[in-house]
């Protein structure tokens, strides 16, 4: 049984009784600390708001988290209960303003709000008229196809867009900042064409204004990562077979630039979008490259082996990688890098479960010099930090061996040619004794 609470109070746990002397000493120490910190001790932590709504559920799935989903203006709250999406307005949970019933619905997502003028165009300066979309996914059963639908939140009687899929085990949605487009990623666990052990993927770019879609995944392979730009309507995709293609698309789904093929599966952008981080984590070696998004050139390379988490800091100059538990039960750590690839700090932990960076609006970002070019001396220092020897490893030669090599340069002496025989036969030289025995017979 799971409970979801909005607001409320949280009581502290009661401490065990101590001896009189220990209790007096601890109270004096706490009073001194409270005086020093100007804090008054209370029995419970009181929030500004009281409990607004409480609901009990018999089941829970990660795809429906968070359970309550608000629009950007917080005027509408939506939740999914027993194949029905309930909508509450103005945080009044006593009255259901609207609801949408769909059989076999698995999850839903709410788009960012669009500001619409009377002519139907986007207008960020008009806060009175807002447009919100509701995206739903229904899993197919008994030979029926799975269905993805988009509704207008103001009119749930009929969907404005739908797409059917016959093979879909997992689905992911990513809206752009304005809510005018979304990326629909579909994944199947089993590839029927038997081209990949990890299944197959597909990616669609959907325009919610024109109600058109574009198939981004034109070649075979998987979709490893997708990321929208924060300030502009363009997105990056890491797709295909390893080494994967890293491609930049515009707001219409057209290819703008290709960064080539690399052994990467992770994409990250800093807040001002001047730097693109590409990394190969998980089952890859942990290589990291930093790219200049203006001239599309690689700035530097570094590495973070066994990393699970990778995020940019809010100052746009640093990023971190973390090895967490239980993905890896040893060597849990946090590494902090500068954007030029240098390791600034490393923190070790016995068990590290997660790392979260404050949102972008908490700290003002600083401007950085993106005119930096690849520096060979700096790269040598980075390799020294990582313990990587930049010298090329030659062919191994055993002690005492001669300098003679074969024609193919592999260090193996060439063997004399054997006489031509039928397949499967080996040339055997008969001994003299065997020849004499044959003559006597």
UniProtKB/TrEMBL annotation:
Keywords: Initiation factor, Protein biosynthesis, Repeat, WD repeat. GO terms for cellular component: cytosolic small ribosomal subunit. Residues 1-41 are annotated as: Disordered. Pfam families: eIF2A. Residues 163-355 form the Translation initiation factor beta propellor-like domain. GO terms for molecular function: mRNA binding; ribosome binding; translation initiation factor activity; tRNA binding. The keyword Protease does not apply. Residues 32-41 have a biased composition (Basic and acidic residues). InterPro entries: TIF2A (IPR011387), TIF_beta_prop-like (IPR013979). Residues 1-18 have a biased composition (Basic residues). This is Eukaryotic initiation factor 2a, putative.
